[in-house]
Amino acid sequence: MMTKEMETILDSTNDGMMIIDKGGVVTLFNHAAEIMTGLSKEKVVGKYISENFPETQLVDVMVLEEITADNFLKIGNKEITIRRMPMHNDLGQVVGAVAIFRDISDLTSLNDQIDRLKEMQSLLEGILHSTQDAISVCDEKGIHVLINPAYTKLTGLSEKDIIGKPVTVDISEGQSVHLQALKKQKPVSNTKLKVGKHHKEIIASASPIIVDGELRGSVGILQDLTEMKKLNRELMLARQIIRKLEAKYTFDDIIASDQQMTDCIEKSRQAAKTPANILLRGESGTGKELFAHAIHNLSDRRYKQFVRVNCAAINESLLESELFGYEEGAFTGARKGGKIGLFQEAHNGTIFLDEIAEIPTSTQVKLLRVLQEGEVMSVGSTRSINVDVRVIAATNVHLEKAVEEGRFREDLYYRLNVIPIRIPPLRNRMNDIYPLILSFLNKYNQEYGRNAKDLSPEALRHLKQYHWPGNVRELQNYIGRAMVNMKLQDTLLEAKHLPKFFDSETDFSNNYAASLSDKKMKVASLDQALKEAEKKIIEDTLERHGNNRTKTAETLNISIRSLYYKIKKLGID
């Protein structure tokens, strides 16, 4: 018989207890057992155990007279272990059995947390060991507790040198970012230090570790400043190479002292900083392409593609497929697999459409769609492709007149003419002739092996008296020919070195006839003779007009597109 004092003692334990007599009637059910099972003492005590615990094995314990190992039982959200054992009297006879319950929910949760912490620790160690950044961790007292292999590689200091030692032990010059982060309890970044055996120059950052509002330590990241400088130099070099390959010139390459030209450059600089389309106007040879390169190189797209398209040099039937691309089988002779267009090549960059007035009206419609919708559709395709391209167009044609005559779409004109920039002809900025000539002397000194330093006042006076219909391009070509007439030891370009200009159409014809006679051309057939004659006429006309192809075409009474075709066919440089 269980005394009242004994029941009170058993009720105070954390383990649940249930005792049955030899007949299987419950004689004790303590307070902890009530909590674990959710059953009251009144409902259980004095009842057969099978009434409340139908699957109990406690009766079997009396029969087998053996203690059972711990069994796990889930009751609600609780994890319970049960141990069962028989009870004997002084004579060794079985008089009942006892079951002891133990709530191990907290232990299970703790084990789960420990497992998760171990997983997180393994994950953290994996990250620390695989990252290229040098990492060190200290506790709240400023003592190193962890470093990774990248740290050892950067500083030359091992765990033995660092762990358990103050955070200042690795610093040869500068203040510890760990101590600053611990003191301020705020991140510290981009601090220059020298660390390790070889006084490696680094950039260090650190952040405090705060858990539940308490400062627990600091984590620091070290980056090799020497390597960063090297990578930055390589990046700048790569960018310079890209710029040389794609857009060759900057505004520094444009020589100008005349007010008209400097105003034009300033307007172009301002335009470069906007995403707006630009229309460059000016006579042939004024430097429209030079401006296009410079604008691209000053824009936000400077490190992206710069694609130049001479709209007059591409056959009308091929221009659309070149600009917008084509699908496989789109037309006879189409490349297998198709081809992306120049607009797609220029995606995120700039496309320079030179001789824009020469685009046929059928292609103008598709170009307008690109400018309005920002999408292209390749020839033979039904699918549109989005493109982000800045358009710089150029022309030496009176576009407004072309619009009036119906040769150029008015809506396309307004889309292109967002920022018009007119480049003045050389005859209107004669003050620029002298600095331009000096730059050409330097250029051809290197190419021709000459040593020209300057030109005589007489030579400069002659050059300023000419009207330069071919503008800067004609001047450059002319100075190149003049330097051929100089001797290697000459340092001054004089009037005697200057080639004669063509004075009239008659003189040109006579010069041409004489040149044919002087060369004593040997030809195999009439066809070859005609080709040689045609080539000579075009070359001399181009030279006469300072390589101005529009004026050359007008003089020869042929279209600009025919001129480009003949130049390519006859192999004229």
From TrEMBL:
Q: Where is the Sigma-54 factor interaction domain?
A: 254-484
Q: Name one GO molecular function term.
A: sequence-specific DNA binding
User: Entry's InterPro entries?
Assistant: AAA+_ATPase (IPR003593), AAA_lid_NorR (IPR058031), Homeodomain-like_sf (IPR009057), HTH_Fis (IPR002197), P-loop_NTPase (IPR027417), PAS (IPR000014), PAS-like_dom_sf (IPR035965), PAS_fold (IPR013767)
Kindly state which keywords UniProt assigns to this record, in alphabetical order: ATP-binding, Coiled coil, DNA-binding, Nucleotide-binding, Transcription, Transcription regulation
SUPFAM superfamilies reported for this sequence: Homeodomain-like, P-loop containing nucleoside triphosphate hydrolases, PYP-like sensor domain (PAS domain)
Which one Pfam family would you cite for this protein? Answer: Sigma54_activat
- All copies of domain PAS, residue ranges: 2-47, 120-171
GO biological-process terms attached to the record: regulation of DNA-templated transcription
- Point out the coiled-coil segments of this chain: 516-543
Gene3D superfamilies linked to this entry: 1.10.8.60, Homeodomain-like, P-loop containing nucleotide triphosphate hydrolases, PAS domain
Designated name of the protein: PAS domain S-box-containing protein
Origin organism is Tindallia californiensis
